[in-house]
Amino acid sequence: MLNALLLALKVIPTVFMALFPVVNPIGTALILSGMTSGTDARVWKVTSRKISLYSFLVLSFFYCFGYLILKLFGITIPVVQVSGGLVLAVMGWQMLNGSSGDGQASGSGQHEANASVIGKTFYPFTFPLTVGPGGLAIAMTFGAHLRRGGGVVMAEYLAGIAGIFAICATVYLCYANLQYINKKIAPAAVQAISKMLAFFVICIGVEIFWEGVQALKG
Questions:
Q1: How far is Cα 164 from Cα 190, in angstroms, rounded to an integer?
Q2: Does 112 have pLDDT greater than 80?
Q3: Long-range Cβ contacts of 126-130 (<8 Å, 24+ apart)
Q4: CA spacing 20 to 30 A to 118: which of 52, 134, 153, 209?
Q5: Residues 92, 198: contact at Cβ < 8 Å?
Q6: Is the Cβ–Cβ distance between 202 and 96 less than 8 Å?
Q7: Strand (E) positions, 46-200?
Q8: Which of the pair, 47 or 102, is modelled with greater confidence?
Q9: Residue 75: CB atoms within 10 Å
Q10: Residue (of 136, 186, 169) closest to 53 by Cα position
């Protein structure tokens, strides 16, 4: 029982660390600050709350039911571990060696009405700016990873949901405080944090890949 609880506690930071560089709440918040300039602060806080909620629902859906998609296409869990681990490691490598984000900001932000900003809550603010294909792939991979052997420990399962909730709570905190982030965190510091976390993404990807290989061998 204690071992199961300890394993579950490991899942929370692992899921959080894997999703953080891909979701990139700090960097994306800096991009959104240019796309939403001129928006009423109270309206943007409500919009930020909705973005974090939608992100949680989307990631949780793929985490919980991604295995049904796998069954539909006849893909086994070890194969998902191998391919998902490779994708995760490659994504981490690209983030580690690539340049910082595109930094594209919509110049029309100052001229947008609050209603227009609210209309963009799900697309593009939630998908694909906050939760893109990479985040969906990670959620699905972890969901399949915990279902190894056809079963799942409930504590680990709930811990994965808690990890997703933690990253979405971080999204809300970053998005709702865009002005503070712009004043207090330099772009160079944001890039340094992203690079460090990218290395951990590579390690997590390699570990998932290796466990998939071992499962295929067995």
A1: 21
A2: no
A3: 126/51, 126/54, 126/55, 126/58, 127/54, 127/58, 129/28, 129/31, 129/32, 130/23, 130/25, 130/28, 130/51, 130/55, 130/171
A4: 134
A5: yes
A6: yes
A7: none
A8: 47
A9: 14
A10: 169
Residues in the chain: 218
114 phi and psi angles, rounded to 5 deg: -60, -35
> Which amino acid appears at position 122 of this protein?
F
Name the residue among 131, 137, 103, 120 with its Cα closest to residue 33.
103
Q: Which has the closest alpha carbon to 141: 100, 88, 202? A: 88
Quick one: tokens of 91? 């994504």
Contact 170, 180 (CB under 8 A): no
- pTM to 2 decimal places: 0.74
Domain of residue 83 covers 2-217
Domain tally for the chain? 1
Q: 100 versus 21: which is more confidently predicted?
A: 21
